């Protein structure tokens, strides 16, 4: 009976050790917007989706890049709004690497170029994403 108990404990420990999920590095793109969105707000999200769909489709589908579009006026999102101290429309690129988080605020670039020069905005976004994968 002792041997059987030891075998069961050994199998349980081995299984639990190997089943632990390894944390992988990933990027989160958080776009905080109002409930009513202007043309620029819509253009920002369209440009992000364009970049992710054309240049980073594989990484997006694998979960290496995650996009969250968040209405910061919706009470249901209050915990994330408070956590990031959001008061106005904001675009954050968040590097999650080796259990560290680094925030890059692209709000100014997004609002400056999403409509007037979308290729420049896309280039800036791509450079920040590429920096993560280097």
Outline of the structure:
Helix content is 52%, strand content 22%.
Helices and strands in order, then pairings?
Layout: H1 2-19, E1 26-33, H2 39-54, H3 57-62, E2 65-71, H4 78-84, E3 90-97, E4 100-105, H5 107-113, H6 118-133
Parallel strand pairs: 1-2
Antiparallel strand pairs: 1-3, 3-4
**Domains, number:** 1
Shape: globular
Largest sheet data: 4 strands, mixed
- Fraction of residues in helix: 40-55%
Strand order within the widest beta sheet: 2-1-3-4
Q: What's the CATH superfamily, by name?
A: Glutaredoxin
Annotation, overall tally of beta strands: 4
Supply the CATH class. Answer: Alpha Beta
Question: Could you tell me how far the N terminus lies from the C terminus, measured between alpha carbons in angstroms?
Answer: 54 Å
N to C succession of SSEs: HEHHEHEEHH
* Low-pLDDT segments: 2-20
Q: How many individual helices?
A: 6
Q: Beta-strand level of the residues, as a percent range?
A: 15-25%
- Rg for CA atoms: 20 Å
Overview of the molecule:
A four-stranded mixed beta sheet has the order 2-1-3-4. It has helices at about 1-20, 40-55, 55-60, 80-85, 105-115, 120-134; strands spanning about 25-35, 65-70, 90-95, 100-105. The protein is globular. Helix 2 crosses helix 6 (about 120-134) and helix 5 (about 105-115) packs antiparallel against helix 6. Residues about 1-20 have low confidence and may be disordered. It has a single domain, classed as Glutaredoxin (3-Layer(aba) Sandwich), CATH 3.40.30. Strand 3 and strand 4 form a beta hairpin. By secondary structure, it is an alpha+beta fold.
């Amino acid at each position: 009976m002792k041997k059987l108990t030891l075998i069961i404990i050994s199998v349980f420990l081995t299984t639990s050790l190997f089943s632990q999920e390894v944390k992988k590095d990933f990027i989160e793109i958080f776009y905080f917007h109002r409930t009513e969105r202007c043309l620029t707000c819509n253009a920002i999200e369209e440009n992000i989706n364009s970049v992710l769909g054309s240049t980073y489709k594989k990484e997006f589908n694998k979960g290496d890049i995650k996009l969250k579009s968040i209405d910061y006026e919706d009470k249901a999102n209050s915990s994330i709004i408070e956590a990031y101290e959001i008061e106005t429309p904001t675009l954050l690129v968040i590097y999650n690497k080796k259990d560290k988080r680094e925030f890059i605020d692209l709000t100014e670039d997004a609002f400056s170029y999403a409509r007037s020069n979308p290729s420049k905005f896309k280039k800036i976004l791509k450079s920040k994403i590429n920096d993560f994968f280097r």
